[in-house]
Amino acid sequence: MAKKEKTVAVETADTSVSAEKAMKKGTVIQAVKAVAVLVIICLVCGALLALCNDLLYVSDEVRADRALQKIYPNFKNDDSFAGLDSSKASTPYGQVLSVKKSTDGAYILEAVSSNIGFSNGTVSIFVAVSGGTDPKIVGWTVDKNVGQSFIGNITSKHQKTWFINQSITVVNPENPEGSGLGSGATHTENAIGYAINAASYYCINVLKLVSTPESEAKDAVIALLGAEADGYSFVAVKDADYLEACKVDEHELSFYFEGKKTESDPLAVYVYGEDENRQIVVVKDNLTHAERLEESAVVAKSEGINDSLVAKAQSRSYFEYQVQKSHAAFEFAGMGDINSEFATKDEYGTANKVYLSTDGAIMVEATGKGGFASGTVTVNVIIADSVIKGWTIVSNVDQSYIGNIKNEHMTSWYVGQSIGQPIELGSNKVTGTTLSSTAINNAVNMACYYARNTLQQGGAE
C-alpha cells in the first residue's frame, strides 16, 4: 500500500514538472511572437516614416526661401548668384550680413545698423529690393535687435508702410522720413534707418543696381588707382565750404572722398567735373604741409589733368581745413605718441591722439562720456601756452540734437580758458542738448588733463 502511494506521488511530481516546462515553453514562444510583432511594427513604421520624410522633406534652403517669401512673395533663390562680397560688406551705416538674389532679379539683404539705437544698440533687418531699371524697397522686416526695449512698438503695419516703394538712395538715417516715423521708439527708428541705408549703400556701390553721380565718381577713382585701391573704402565728405575752397578757376570740386585702409595710410581724393570730362587727383593724407607739396605726395591723377588742380589738392588737406577753423595758426607738423598712463580718466573719458603744430601748439583728440543715452562726443582741443586756443567736434555717438551746437559755440566756449584746473560746464550748453554739452565738457577736460600731465602745461596733477 505504501509502495503504491509512493508511485502515485512520483507520477504527480512528474506531471507538475511537465506542466511547468510546458508553461515556460509557452511563455517563451509568446515572448518571441511579441518581439517579432514589435520588430515588424518598427520596420513598417520606419519604412512609412522614411517614405513620409522623402515626400515631406523641406531642405534648409527651401525653409530659408519660404521665410524670405514672407518679405518678398515672388522670391525664388538664384543659385548662380555669388552672394555676399564680405570685403565690401562694411558701410558708413552698418554691416551687410548676407545677400540673396531672386530669379526675377530682386535681392534680399540682411543688414545690421551701427550702434545708433537706444543705449548704443543695433537692429538687424531683412530688406527686399526689386530689380529692373528703377529698383525700389518692396519689403522689410526686423530680424533681431540688441538693447531696444520698445522695439515692440514697431509692428507689421509699420513694416508694410515705412520705406516701401522708395527708390534705392541713401536717405537721412537720423530722420528717415524727414519728420520722424512716429512709433514712440525714436532711437530704434534711427537704427532701422541706418540698416536700410546700409542695404541701400551696398545695392548702389557693390551690386551696382543704381548709378548715381557719387557712385560713378567713386568707380572712376577706383579704376584710376587700380591695384592701389585694394583695401580702401572711400567715403564722400559733403562739406560745402571745403568744396568751395577747393574750386580752381572754372573747375568746381564735384566730390571729395576720404579713402581709409588704416589710420596711418589715408588718401584724399579730389574729383572735378563729371563723365568723360572728370578730372581726379589722389594725394596722401595726414602729411605735413611741406610733405603734401612734394611730388611724391601724389598717388594718382587722371590724364590731361590741369596742373593747377594738382597744386590745389596738395596745398591744403581737409584735416588742416577742419583744424584751422578752430585755430588758424595751427599748422600740422606731425603726430605725437600717446602716453597711456594719462590717456584715460574715468570721470572724463579718453585721449585718443595728439597732433603737433610747427609753432609748438598741440591738439588733443579726446572722447567725453556722459552724453545722451550714455553716448559720447569726440572733440579736437588746441592748446598753447596752457590756454585753450580752439576746439571742434569730430564725431559723436547717439547724440540726436548735437547739430544745435553751432560754429559760434565752438569759437566762444572754452576759448582763452586756462587748462590749469578742471572746467565747469556752467553756461557752456545749448537748451535741448544738456547731455551732449556735458559730454563735450568732459572731452575738453580730458584733453586738458592729458596736456597738464604729459606736456607740463598748466601744472601736473
Task: Record keyword descriptors for this entry.
461 residues; alpha+beta; Sufe protein. Chain: A; 3 domains; 11 helices; 34% helix
Using only CA atoms, what is the Rg? 36 Å
Head-to-tail CA distance between termini: 127 Å
Uncertain ranges:
none
- Percentage of helical residues? 25-40%
Give me the number of helical elements: 11
- The portion of residues forming beta strands comes to 15-25%
Order of helices and strands: HHEEEEEHHHEHEEEHEHHEEEEEEHH
Number of strands: 16
The outline comes out as extended
The CATH class of the largest domain, by name, is: Alpha Beta
Structural account:
By secondary structure, the protein is an alpha+beta fold. It has 3 domains: 86-205; 213-316; 327-454, Sufe protein. Chain: A, CATH 3.90.1010. It has helices spanning 2-56, 60-69, 156-159, 186-205, 213-225, 240-245, 289-292, 307-315, 318-326, 407-410, 434-454, and strands at 90-91, 94-101, 107-113, 122-129, 137-146, 233-236, 253-260, 267-272, 279-284, 298-301, 332-336, 344-345, 349-357, 362-368, 376-384, 387-397. Strands 11, 12, 13, 14, 15 and 16 form a 6-stranded antiparallel sheet that branches. It starts with a helix and ends in a 7-residue tail after the last helix.
